[in-house]
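A sample follows:
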Amino acid sequence: MSLPGFFIICMLHSIVAITFGALMMFYTKEVSVFGHGHEIANGEFQSFFAKGCVLLHVLMVIWRVSFEGKLDDLAHEWPRQALGDIALALSWVFLLVYSWRQMYD
């Protein structure tokens, strides 16, 4: 039994994600300047983006441990994928630490 508006909501979320992802990828400077001004736009946006990526990867690890481990079809793949998510999250953490060190030196 499917919900009547499920497909529409999924399509709406996909369109919003693709639109904002494209704006962040191809018009980063223009979008961040529009929201924050010229002097602080680039550094704050990159920090915000990196923090969001860390959060996303941590949530993916929690998802994989909590749910994918219980599914028979995905039970053998989740440890490798969780380690990959942890490695990606750590790479963003290292970028944040490096940028903070440059900012406060």
Notes: The radius of gyration is 18 Å.
